[in-house]
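Handoff note, outgoing to incoming analyst
You'll be picking up this chain. Sequence as last confirmed:
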Amino acid sequence: MSMKKIVFLICIIYGIISTYMASLFYIEPLAYTPPLYKRADLSYILLKSRENYSDEDYRFIYNQTGLGRSAVNAIENPNKLLEYQNSRYAGVDFTCRMNSPVSFEERVENSPIILAPLEDGDILITNSSHVLSWRNGHAAIVVDAENGITLEAVVIGKNSKTQDISKWTHYPNFAVLRLKGVSKKERAEIARSAMDHLCNIPYKATIGIFPAKYSELELAAGTQCAHLVWLAYAAHGYDIDSNQGLIVTPDDILRSELFEVVQTYGMG
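Most recent structure output, in case you need it:
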């Protein structure tokens, strides 16, 4: 190989590495977005009975705490809202680490984050995961809210498995979603069928292209994080893929109009 070709090859490699490092510099700050609204006094809310909360009150609480209406109604002591407000405005320091040969995730070590009261079937979404410089995100379904257990297709090369929900307090951003207008019993049935059929399934990043996106739960031969959640709901008649493409992503689920927001953190 001539010297010119060697120099040309080195320049190409250097350009690729430089572009990649520049892209990481751009995407890292996107792992956490501070609240869009200035911190405000919640005193007048705490003095009101919940029966008298207006839609405006719920919006104000959401902007200050990240808690949606259902989460606010599930909190018995209104003073607890102050803890969620403190958590939301505490800010986080996070680090990025490799969690597979091709993927990375951001983590918060000393986390101030408090999760809202959860129910079986709730979905958790974060974009604090990326393959090189593409933020693919991550998704999970709550299969045992009482004991804080999720079911997740965690990473390439590993079968889907249960996880302790506390791991989600160490992501610098996340959203908790709940199917609108559906009974707690039915949502629990969706979670139970996911646990019965989608645990210990091989990770397959190409699911949706090969093999097909939909299959009967008991015939699922592969999955990835968003697909696992999608398939659990699709088997019960709910297509939670907002763009209904071949491959479902965490962001596709996040944008679905079938959900209400239970909680957000670090997403602005």
